[in-house]
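Q: Start with the shorter request: fold the first protein.
A: Done. Sequence, then structure:
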Amino acid sequence: MSTNRFWVFSMKLAVFDFDSTLMDGETLEFIAREYNIEPLMKQITTDAMEGKIDFFESLVQRVALLKGAKEEKVIEICKNLPYMNGAKETIKELHKMGYKVVCFSGGYETATIPAQQSLGYDAQFANILHFKNGEMTGLVGGEMMFSDSKGKMIQRLQNLLNVTVEDTLTVGDGANDISMFKHAGKRAAFCAKQKLKEHANIIIDDKDLTNILNYI
């Protein structure tokens, strides 16, 4: 006589933004510094994160500013970005708690793929810079180009992994993180713009990601 056993387990999902969350700064601003256009890049980024301009429009404008940037230099910069204090330790602890840890970035795979190897998160979804003949063309494509992209992707992952809203943690800093906050029980605004704080139930203003563990 055989007995069928059904194992029931609850998976948890933690989704982190990349720029100014897992990484201490904005990827394009580090690249722009190399080409002496950081102030203009910074202003467009700030307006986008505060929700003053459409995220897609800001993305297109910022990448266009870097047309002609050398691919080799961009890759080198992205491999040497400074990660946020406590990022690696926080991801390690979340894994111990049964979380799958994912990075959603309105930034770029040139940065999020090396960071995955360093920080140890399980998957990353980001945009892709277009290079031709060893230079940036000023064009961009990918999975995180719009203000609602993160919200749509987190719902897909929740359905795929059978994770509830209550077992979902989101961490971000800007207006383009609002859409994923809408689908999470724990919503951590990390050193965030005021517009995102209005949608959070966890607010952390110190640059140390391990503070999040106090709320889980």
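Q: Next, the second protein, separately.
A: Sequence, then structure:
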Amino acid sequence: MAVSKPLSFDPRQVPVSRVDSHLPPVPHANLQPAALRQRFAFPPEWAPEIVREPRFGERVPAQAAVLIPIVLRDAVDGGPTILLTQRSAHLSTHSGQIAFPGGKVDEQDPTVQAAALREAHEEVGLMPHLVQVLGELPQYETGSAFLVTPVVGLVMPNFELTPNPGEVADVFEVPLAFLMNPAHHRRHTVDWQGGQREWFSMPYTEYKSDDQGKSAPVERYIWGATAGMLRNFYRFLLAENSVLEVR
């Protein structure tokens, strides 16, 4: 969730202002299931780096929830991953962008966690009983006035997905270690709609085989709100037992 109208610029063409390679990655041991459960059971004192994006437009704020699904892949398969979607190109909002499964919280949803699980099931066919919810990250306000609660859950890898073609063009996984390494966190700044806008991007290259078995690179351009929530997740996993100083 990054914008509510077509962009007047291509985010891929905006120069990189800085790469945070000076910051430490989250240690490998802290990305394992037991450590993740422990972190949410006994969270440290910390502060999210990004709380809200500059607002554009006048739409009424809407509550939303996304699922950050951590797929428990074995070490031989590269370790835990995060499941992401590429939204269908014809959608009126956030078309073609990389996103977590999720959407608006409906009146019948008893909790934001229930909303995130429902949306993940509707979008990609992920069955709720396969997700062990660990907890929530702080609410993230997008520039398009979505008040998003990220719900973090562990997912066993023995699932079958059935993406909804009306909403999802593709589903893929990115190694958690890649996303929790700030050497892959790029900062961008652009003047847009009369103001200055800043965001993170975390481009990931996936290699996919075609019908002839040949491997070809596919860029997964993660940016905007999705990258912002991942950056907060990085801060949460890296935090010690004191408020983290944001640099």
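Q: Describe the second briefly.
A: The longest strand covers residues 62-71. The radius of gyration is 17 Å.
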